[in-house]
Every structure is written in structure tokens, then in C-alpha cells.
């Protein structure tokens, strides 16, 4: 997998290389590598990178690093490919895919078609028929119209018998032939027969800045088709103590008692905080705000909720729905429900139809039934980018 380019055409040369720019919540190269790792026929990935990119590559692929071998590339794509092939030789593969790291939308169907077509003597090239009329132009003048019959655009991955394409690259280096634009061209020059399969129009290479817009639109459609919806639950309980008010959902409610706690003891927001954290497997409220830490003494629980919300949004999450059930004999929640909802709308920036606040008693049973405290149950459904893992 080739990812050693600088990608100046995709943006300013002062920006990070295009393969490390974010597409959704992950770098482009992450999407590309992940696609290949999902296919059962792929056993090893050699990732060829620029010598200056080790740190940014490590950060981009931290979750996948155990499946990769990193190799430094050369001054040209052709030299970088040879470096990758030489690093792969010790694994003695029968076939090898050569792929552009800036093509992040590889589908299993395309890989399957390539694998079903490859032979020990022939390579495979995915192609798409040319739909536009082609013109030969010189200095803004049209010289001729080129018949598009039998003309196709080439994509990657291009698949080859390993020893054949390695020999082709070595020979090209030996005779200093460096003008090939892809690996299929080297194979043709070396005499390796090439078969074709139908490519995928979504298998775009991100080259120009406008390609990022296309990629983002496609990713959004893909997310809508295969949403990753996660649901988290939270539960909290606080006892009463002497006081003159209590706080629920961030709203002060006059009462002859208050809730006992290290912070403002907002049992509703505590439960909701845990529900949000659960959708990221991020522990609970006590993990992030230990009650033994004096800095959280009497702090508004909105601080905790906003922290959990930040974790969700930084992972690309969007709240689909939150639901809170308060369990108490008193005080009556009904008169304050609308104000509570408006406060959650403000904090979470979601519409009222995505918020549910309910209250019930415990039918005089247990400590709640005896009027000793309040419990809260919360559920949050979050929509995250990407497909549900298999």
C-alpha cells in the first residue's frame, strides 16, 4: 500500500499529507487499511510511507498497527513500490495487491472479483469504461476527438503474481526506466499478461481538493445506510439531608430537603452522564470525577454532562434520543418537567422530541418509598459514523 506521497495537489503543501487528513473521524489511510484488513484473503500489509511520516502514521493507525509492516518509500512512486515488494518477499506470497493509500473506499466485492480472476501467470486490473468524450488539445486548441471505444480508466488495487511483478520492477530499475504511471504499465512492458475486471465508481482516488468533498458525501451516505447506533444506560441514587432545595436536570427545585452528594448531587444528570459515557466504553462518572477529589466539591453536574458530551462528539457521535426516569415519592416533578427539558435542550443542543423526562413513585416500597432519597435511570441512543462491526 503506497502512502509516501506529499499530496500537494489536494491542498496547500503546508498541510499534512492528504492520506493523513480526516475523512469523517478517521484519517484517509485508516479507512484504506481497514478495508483490506476486513478481507479474509489479505494476510499481510506492507505500508510504504515517507521517511518524515513515522509519527503521524503511528498516530493515524494506532488501532491497526499490529497488522502492518511499515517501510520507507523513495523519491518516486515506482521506487516506493519496489521497496514495498522487497519487504514483502520474506513472506513468500503467491500474489500481491498494489494499491494507492488515497483510495479509501475498497469494497469486498471488488477484491473478491480480483481474487477469482487472478492466475499464476496473469495479473488483474480493475477498470471503468470512459463515459466522457475525449479530446486531444494543444494550447487551448482542439486537435482531434479520440474514439473512446476500448478505452478504460485504470484503478487500484492491481493484483499480480508476486515473483513476476517483483522481477519486472527490478528490471525497470536496472535499465533506469522510470516513466511508468502505474504497475500495470510495468507489467505490460515486462510481458506479464493482464486481465481486467469491472472496477467500482466509488473507488475514487483522492487527488484534488474537490475529491475530499466527494469522499465526504459518499461517507455520509454510507453512514446513513449502515448506522452504528449505540445505547448506553445510567443509574444513580442520592439520599436526602436537611436543606431548602434540590437540583434535578440542572433546575433548582424548592423543597424542605436537599440531596446529599459531593457535587450538587443532581441524580438525573449523573445518570445521563453515565449513559453517554457508556456508548464509548469510557467508564463512569466516578472514573472521570472521583468523589475523593476536592476540586469537584459542590460543582454543577452540568460540568460532568458536558464532559461526557465532548467525548461523544469527538468520536463523531450525534444524540438520537435521551430518556430519564426519576423515582421518588416527593417532590412532585410535573411542575418542573418543561423547564428541565428546556435545560437539557440547551446543554445537548437537541430538539424536545429527542428528550424524555418521566417520574414515578416506588409505591411506598424501600428507601425511596420511605422518602429517604431519589433514584434516576437514564438511557441514551447515539448515532456514530461507520458500519456496525462484524
TrEMBL record:
Reaction catalysed by this enzyme: 4-CDP-2-C-methyl-D-erythritol 2-phosphate = 2-C-methyl-D-erythritol 2,4-cyclic diphosphate + CMP; 2-C-methyl-D-erythritol 4-phosphate + CTP + H(+) = 4-CDP-2-C-methyl-D-erythritol + diphosphate
Marked site: Positions MEP for the nucleophilic attack: 148, 205
Pfam families: IspD, YgbB
Family annotation (InterPro entries): IspD, IspD/F, IspD/TarI, MECDP_synthase, MECDP_synthase_CS, MECDP_synthase_sf, Nucleotide-diphossugar_trans
Binding annotation for 4-CDP-2-C-methyl-D-erythritol 2-phosphate: 236-238, 262-263, 284-286, 360-363, 367, 370
Keyword field: Isoprene biosynthesis, Lyase, Metal-binding, Multifunctional enzyme, Nucleotidyltransferase, Transferase
Family annotation (SUPFAM superfamilies): IpsF-like, Nucleotide-diphospho-sugar transferases
Cofactor(s) essential for the protein: a divalent metal cation
EC number(s) reported in the record: 2.7.7.60, 4.6.1.12
Site for Transition state stabilizer, residues: 9, 18, 262, 361
Region (2-C-methyl-D-erythritol 2,4-cyclodiphosphate synthase): 230-390
Keyword Nucleotide-binding annotated: no
Binding-site residues, a divalent metal cation: 236, 238, 270
Region annotated 2-C-methyl-D-erythritol 4-phosphate cytidylyltransferase, chain positions: 1-229
GO MF annotation list: 2-C-methyl-D-erythritol 2,4-cyclodiphosphate synthase activity; 2-C-methyl-D-erythritol 4-phosphate cytidylyltransferase activity; metal ion binding
Pathway: Isoprenoid biosynthesis; isopentenyl diphosphate biosynthesis via DXP pathway; isopentenyl diphosphate from 1-deoxy-D-xylulose 5-phosphate: step 2/6; Isoprenoid biosynthesis; isopentenyl diphosphate biosynthesis via DXP pathway; isopentenyl diphosphate from 1-deoxy-D-xylulose 5-phosphate: step 4/6
2-C-methyl-D-erythritol 2,4-cyclodiphosphate synthase domain: residues covered: 229-382
Function: Bifunctional enzyme that catalyzes the formation of 4-diphosphocytidyl-2-C-methyl-D-erythritol from CTP and 2-C-methyl-D-erythritol 4-phosphate (MEP) (IspD), and catalyzes the conversion of 4-diphosphocytidyl-2-C-methyl-D-erythritol 2-phosphate (CDP-ME2P) to 2-C-methyl-D-erythritol 2,4-cyclodiphosphate (ME-CPP) with a corresponding release of cytidine 5-monophosphate (CMP) (IspF).
PANTHER family membership: 2-C-METHYL-D-ERYTHRITOL 2,4-CYCLODIPHOSPHATE SYNTHASE, CHLOROPLASTIC
Family of the protein in this entry: Belongs to the IspF family.
Full protein name: Bifunctional enzyme IspD/IspF
Species assigned in the record: Bartonella krasnovii
Gene from which this protein is expressed: ispDF
Amino acid at each position: 500500500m503506497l502512502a509516501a506521497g506529499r499530496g500537494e495537489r489536494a491542498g496547500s503543501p503546508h498541510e499534512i499529507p492528504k492520506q493523513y487528513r480526516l475523512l469523517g473521524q478517521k484519517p484517509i489511510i485508516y479507512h484504506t487499511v481497514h478495508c483490506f484488513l476486513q478481507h479474509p484473503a489479505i494476510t499481510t500489509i506492507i505500508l510504504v510511507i515517507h521517511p518524515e511520516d513515522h509519527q503521524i502514521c503511528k498516530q493515524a493507525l494506532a488501532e491497526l498497527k499490529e497488522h502492518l509492516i511499515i517501510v520507507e518509500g523513495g523519491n518516486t512512486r515506482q521506487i516506493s513500490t519496489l521497496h514495498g515488494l522487497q519487504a514483502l518477499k520474506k513472506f513468500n506470497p503467491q500474489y500481491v495487491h498494489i494499491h494507492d493509500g488515497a483510495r479509501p473506499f475498497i469494497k469486498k466485492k471488488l477484491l473478491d472479483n480480483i481474487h477469482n480472476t487472478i492466475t499464476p501467470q496473469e495479473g488483474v486490473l480493475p477498470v471503468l469504461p470512459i463515459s466522457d468524450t475525449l479530446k486531444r488539445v494543444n494550447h487551448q486548441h482542439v486537435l482531434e476527438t479520440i474514439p473512446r471505444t476500448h478505452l478504460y480508466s485504470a484503478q487500484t488495487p492491481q493484483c499480480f503474481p508476486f515473483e513476476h511483478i517483483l522481477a519486472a520492477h527490478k528490471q525497470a530499475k536496472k535499465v533506469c526506466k522510470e516513466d511508468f504511471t502505474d504497475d500495470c504499465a510495468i507489467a505490460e512492458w515486462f510481458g506479464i499478461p493482464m486481465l481486467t475486471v469491472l472496477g467500482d465508481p466509488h473507488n475514487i482516488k483522492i487527488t484534488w481538493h474537490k475529491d475530499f468533498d466527494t469522499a465526504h458525501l459518499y461517507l455520509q451516505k454510507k453512514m446513513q445506510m449502515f448506522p452504528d447506533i449505540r445505547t448506553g444506560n445510567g443509574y444513580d441514587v442520592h439520599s436526602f439531608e436537611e436543606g431548602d432545595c434540590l437540583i434535578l436536570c440542572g433546575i433548582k427545585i424548592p423543597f424542605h430537603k436537599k440531596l446529599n452528594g459531593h457535587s450538587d448531587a443532581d441524580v438525573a444528570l449523573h445518570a445521563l452522564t453515565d449513559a453517554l459515557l457508556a456508548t464509548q466504553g469510557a467508564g463512569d462518572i466516578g472514573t472521570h470525577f472521583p468523589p475523593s477529589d476536592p476540586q469537584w466539591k459542590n460543582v454543577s453536574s452540568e460540568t460532568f454532562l458536558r464532559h461526557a458530551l465532548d467525548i461523544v462528539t469527538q468520536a463523531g457521535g450525534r444524540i438520537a434520543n435521551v430518556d430519564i426516569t426519576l423515582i421518588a415519592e416527593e417532590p412532585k416533578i410535573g411542575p418542573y418537567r418543561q423547564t428541565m427539558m428546556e435545560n437539557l435542550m440547551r446543554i445537548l443542543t437537541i430538539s424536545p422530541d429527542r428528550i424524555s423526562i418521566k417520574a414515578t413513585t416506588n409505591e411506598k416500597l424501600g428507601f425511596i418509598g420511605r422518602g429517604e432519597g431519589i433514584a434516576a435511570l437514564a438511557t441514551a441512543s447515539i448515532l456514530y459514523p461507520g458500519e456496525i462491526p462484524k
